[in-house]
């Protein structure tokens, strides 16, 4: 008798455990009573009765919740919790990015718990579709974002409401008029969200800065920078550190460097360039053999690791270019003075020097620190005129460099580089920064001349650092590469379908054949009305280039080794490359 009672107790316990495990194993599923009874031991009359008792107990405990007539699911508090970062969209709904899931998790506004863009939140998954898309519910705000927002102040008698510029913030933000008496109606302001109480229509904010009157050019430019978290001035301690750097070149500097001051050297840059961070030198060694130097401003001579300037540059990452201004990575003392290779001045450089024959083959190379004297500053238009007419200052040197560059270019495409020639729109502005007209910047041989020698330096520096051998054996050395993966086949298929509408047949789907076919297609489209849209979509069909210490080569350039060495004045990765190269040169 006792044995029979124990068996019944065990069966009841097993049914209860099975039901609880079922809910926890499938937290997004909705279960009916009949389904639960069948899955936990049978849907007999007794089984359904016992299942209903278990369901009643679990509802009372809050382990499960009712979600429709006779349908149940695991309650929110029992579901597995993950953390992620919120990205709000214009409707007020949001997506959460989490390391736990490959795809972003959608959260409707009613399940958002008043989370905001950039907040770190805790959430649970509430629904998983057959296609794999996820829907969730935010259960806790872990950390409010300190993100800044830009908007226009709407000042009334009793309050200030800031109408947000970013499309991701669909609601106004309240500011205390008592705490901000100087904010005027129509001011463009930068704010932070301090709180958003449940049940309140608007979040509360604090004023960070008044940018000026909405609509004024300078105000709107600063608003763009603030919206994307880009600094529009340097802190005083950074400016002071830059001003404290000596401008003079010492005897020790001359002694430690290779002297190029007597070798013909010049820069070629856009007409509106404010800084000149690369120069070319050339001298004839013998008939058909030339020494060409690619000289890059020696930024890391002036910017020491972990200094206040270095920390700021690392934080900024790169310079940022807007229509009417540049937001530099380095203070003006460096970017426009010490590290600008201005004509008729001596400058400190880090250089890649090559001995080339008439076929532009590298016979010898040298890397190291140098001192140069720039003899001339050319604009692209001036250099192009020399190329086209054969006349002008340093005509022989410019023509020789162009001849070598065109041979390097031809070889590069022969080896499988992709030729993306997109038109770049430029604006003519008045003194107030208002656009007067738009024109397309044309890439001519003068541009290609500079491009090819910069590519040569980047390629050779990467190869020197990455392809190192000791006693005939390859030795891996840390290096920052600029890499570009093989094309994505799915994107190529969509591109193939698109260009077919214009009558173009794109056959290749993988390997170097894609580059060859792409060049053929771009050549066929050149000069036709669809050229620009096809060129833009061709770029999107390819993989994106990125920085990595894992070298996979650069597909688009057809280089097995490639890095960024030539612009340390505006890219922090280039500063890293300069420091690595210096270490390896020192052994």
Helix tally? 16
**Proportion of residues in helical segments:** 25-40%
Distance between the termini: 87 Å
Overall structural class, as computed from helix and strand content, comes to alpha+beta
β-strand number: 28
Major beta sheet, strand line-up: 14-21-20-17-16-15-22
Low-confidence stretches: 1-9
Instruction: Kindly provide the radius of gyration, computed on alpha-carbon positions and rounded to a whole number of angstroms.
Output: 32 Å
Question: How much is the average pLDDT?
Answer: 89
Biggest beta sheet attributes: 7 strands, mixed
Shape: globular
Beta-strand content bin: 25-35%
Report on the structure:
The chain is an alpha+beta fold. The chain is 33% helix and 27% strand. It is built from 16 helices and 28 strands. The strands form eight sheets. A seven-stranded mixed beta sheet has the order 14-21-20-17-16-15-22. Residues 1-9 have low confidence and may be disordered.
Short description:
The chain has 587 residues and is of the alpha+beta class. It is built from 16 helices and 28 strands.
What's the topology here?
Layout: H1 2-25, E1 31-32, H2 33-39, H3 45-61, E2 64-66, E3 71-74, E4 82-88, E5 94-97, E6 105-107, E7 120-128, E8 134-143, E9 148-155, E10 160-164, E11 173-175, E12 187-195, E13 204-213, H4 217-227, H5 236-243, H6 251-255, E14 258-259, E15 265-269, E16 278-286, E17 289-297, H7 299-302, H8 308-316, E18 320-321, E19 326-327, H9 332-338, E20 346-357, E21 362-373, E22 376-379, H10 380-389, H11 395-414, E23 424-429, E24 435-441, H12 445-466, E25 468-470, E26 473-475, E27 481-484, H13 489-500, H14 512-525, H15 531-541, E28 545-548, H16 572-585
Parallel strand pairs: 6-8, 14-21, 15-22
Antiparallel strand pairs: 1-3, 2-3, 4-5, 4-7, 5-6, 7-8, 9-10, 9-12, 10-11, 12-13, 15-16, 16-17, 17-20, 18-19, 20-21, 23-24, 25-26, 27-28
Helix pairs in contact: 1-3, 2-3, 11-12, 13-15
């Amino acid at each position: 008798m006792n044995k029979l009672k124990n068996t019944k107790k065990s069966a009841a316990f097993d049914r209860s455990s099975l039901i609880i495990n079922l809910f926890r194993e499938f937290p997004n599923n909705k279960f009916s009573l009949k389904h639960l009874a069948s899955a936990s031991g049978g849907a007999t009359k007794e089984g359904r009765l016992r299942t209903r008792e278990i369901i009643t107990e679990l509802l009372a405990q809050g382990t499960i919740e009712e979600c429709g007539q006779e349908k149940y699911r695991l309650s929110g508090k029992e579901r597995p919790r993950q953390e992620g970062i919120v990205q709000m969209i214009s409707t007020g709904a949001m997506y959460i990015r989490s390391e736990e899931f490959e795809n972003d998790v959608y959260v409707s506004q009613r399940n958002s718990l008043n989370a905001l863009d950039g907040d770190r939140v805790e959430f649970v998954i509430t629904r998983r579709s057959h296609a794999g898309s996820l829907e969730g519910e935010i259960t806790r705000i872990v950390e409010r974002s300190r993100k800044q927002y830009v908007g226009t102040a709407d000042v009334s008698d009793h309050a200030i409401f800031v109408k947000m510029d970013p499309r991701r913030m669909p609601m106004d933000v309240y500011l205390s008029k008592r705490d901000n008496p100087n904010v005027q109606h129509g001011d463009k302001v930068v704010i932070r969200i301090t709180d958003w109480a449940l049940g309140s229509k608007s979040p509360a904010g604090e004023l960070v800065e008044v940018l000026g009157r909405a609509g004024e050019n300078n105000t709107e430019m600063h608003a763009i920078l603030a919206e994307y978290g880009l600094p529009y001035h340097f802190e005083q301690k950074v400016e002071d550190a830059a001003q404290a750097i000596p401008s003079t070149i010492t005897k020790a500097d001359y002694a430690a460097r290779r002297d190029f001051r007597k070798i013909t050297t010049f820069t070629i840059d856009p007409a509106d360039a404010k800084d000149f961070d690369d120069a070319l030198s050339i001298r004839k060694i013998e008939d058909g053999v030339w020494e060409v130097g690619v000289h890059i401003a020696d930024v890391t001579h002036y910017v020491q690791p972990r200094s206040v300037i270095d920390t700021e540059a690392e934080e900024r990452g790169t310079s940022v270019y807007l229509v009417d201004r540049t937001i530099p990575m380095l203070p003006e003392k460096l970017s426009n003075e010490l590290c600008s290779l201005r004509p008729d001045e001596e400058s400190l450089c880090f250089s890649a020097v090559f001995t080339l024959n008439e076929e532009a083959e590298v016979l010898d190379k040298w890397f190291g620190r140098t001192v140069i004297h720039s003899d001339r500053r050319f604009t692209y238009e001036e250099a192009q005129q020399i190329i086209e007419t054969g006349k002008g200052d340093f005509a022989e040197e410019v023509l020789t460099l162009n001849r070598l560059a065109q041979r390097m270019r031809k070889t590069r495409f022969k080896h499988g580089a992709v030729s993306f020639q997109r038109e770049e729109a430029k604006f003519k502005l008045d003194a107030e920064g208002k656009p007067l007209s738009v024109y397309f910047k044309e890439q001519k041989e003068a541009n290609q001349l500079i491009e090819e020698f910069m590519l040569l330096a980047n390629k050779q520096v990467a190869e020197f650092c990455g392809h190192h051998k000791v006693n005939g054996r390859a030795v891996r050395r840390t290096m920052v590469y600029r890499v570009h993966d093989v094309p994505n086949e799915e994107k190529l298929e969509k591109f193939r379908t698109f260009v077919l509408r214009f009558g173009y047949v794109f056959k290749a789907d993988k390997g170097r054949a894609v580059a060859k076919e792409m060049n053929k297609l771009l050549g066929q489209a050149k000069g036709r009305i669809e050229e620009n849209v096809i060129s833009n979509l061709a770029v999107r069909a390819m993989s994106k280039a990125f920085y990595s210490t894992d070298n996979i080569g650069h597909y688009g350039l057809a280089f097995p080794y490639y890095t960024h060495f030539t612009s340390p004045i505006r890219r922090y990765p280039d500063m890293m490359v300069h420091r690595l190269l210096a270490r390896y040169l020192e052994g």
